[in-house]
Specification:
About 60% of the residues lie in helices and about 0% in strands. With about 100 residues, the chain is mainly α. The protein has one domain: Orthogonal Bundle (434 Repressor (Amino-terminal Domain)). The protein is elongated, with a radius of gyration of 18 Å.
């Protein structure tokens, strides 16, 4: 698996390599199957730190695999589109007397 892979693609790769269904991984990680599905499909590209830990523990990843998965999540954090500040403050100015 390439280092540039998304969190969801890596998660699915490691889950399948472990021979687990989404439901089985969810049970091991104490998460919902919906969460696993959403993560793999990229609906939630950057899971919470606790979720990342639960998943890496449930998958029994090697140190290298764990690092790749966590780095891919951090890459997703950096890719979140934040509108420029000027657009966030683009509202009418109240009239003065």
């Amino acid at each position: 698996m390439q280092q540039q892979s998304s969190f969801g693609a890596l998660l699915k790769h490691y889950r399948l390599a472990a021979g687990l269904s989404q439901e089985a991984l969810a049970a091991r990680a104490r998460l919902s199957a919906r969460t696993i599905s959403d993560l793999e499909r990229g609906i939630h590209a950057s899971p919470h730190t606790d979720t990342r830990r639960l998943l890496t523990d449930a998958l029994s990843l090697t140190d290298q695999q764990r690092t790749l998965l966590l780095v891919s999540a951090h890459s997703a954090d950096a890719c979140v589109d934040t509108p420029p500040r000027s657009h966030m403050l683009d509202f009418p100015v109240p009239p003065t007397r």
